[in-house]
Design goal:
The chain is of the alpha/beta class. It has a single domain, classed as Lambda Exonuclease, Chain A. 40% of the residues lie in helices and 18% in strands. The protein contains 7 helices and 8 strands; from the N terminus they run E-H-H-H-H-E-E-E-E-E-H-E-E-H-H. The protein has helices at residues 7-15, 17-26, 31-34, 37-50, 99-114, 142-157, 168-172, and strands at residues 5-6, 60-61, 64-68, 73-77, 79-81, 86-91, 121-126, 131-135. The chain has a 5-stranded mixed sheet. A hairpin with a 4-residue loop joins strand 5 (79-81) and strand 6. Helix 1 (7-15) packs across helix 2 and helix 1 (7-15) packs antiparallel against helix 5 (99-114). The longest helix is centred in the middle third of the chain and has 16 residues, at 99-114. The structure holds iron/sulfur cluster. Iron/sulfur cluster binds next to helix 2 and helix 7. Residues 16, 18-19, 22, 165, 170-171, 174, 176-177, 180, 182-183 line the site of iron/sulfur cluster.
Length: 185
Amino acid sequence: MQGEILITQLNDFIFCPASIYFHNLYGNTDRMLFQSKKQINGTAAHEKVDNNTYSSKKCILSAIDVYCEKYGLSGKIDLYNVDTGVLTERKRTIKTIYDGYIFQVYAQYFALIELGYHVKKINLYSMTDNKKYNIKLPGDDEEMLNKFEQTIQDMRSFRLEQFEQSNPLKCKNCIYEPACDRGIK
Ligand code: SF4
């Protein structure tokens, strides 16, 4: 994968690198065809942010397009409070804190830092059960930062034609399964 990587693709890549190809192929237009109800709910959780309706307060940045030059990542800030320095990524329901979730907030963190903002704290917020999870800053979690950087490198060197998914459970739960020839049938 050359050039810019979308922040949302970090999570997709960890789920399955081939899913990014299908997402690019079908885009959002075929969402109703491919997304399960659960996934549509997850997307809806972000619609308030994407429509920039979350807050009109000046101290809150949300749905702001950002680009992180250091890692070549682009995407949107979910929620950043300029006054408190707290960066929050909201998910519909968080049952497990996947590395992909952490990478998404790391990407936002690095983009904000490049813009000159001071991020003091990172939170993941689970909307349906109102739970908040504090995530260590990248500078305080060397292992996770290394994983983040390795994932970006892996994304840049990924070749779809050489890939085969080895976890059948992933394919079973994947919306692209009917169209995909990289999975286990
Ligand atoms: S069907 Fe399997 S291999 Fe294909 S995109 Fe989905 S998880 Fe990946």
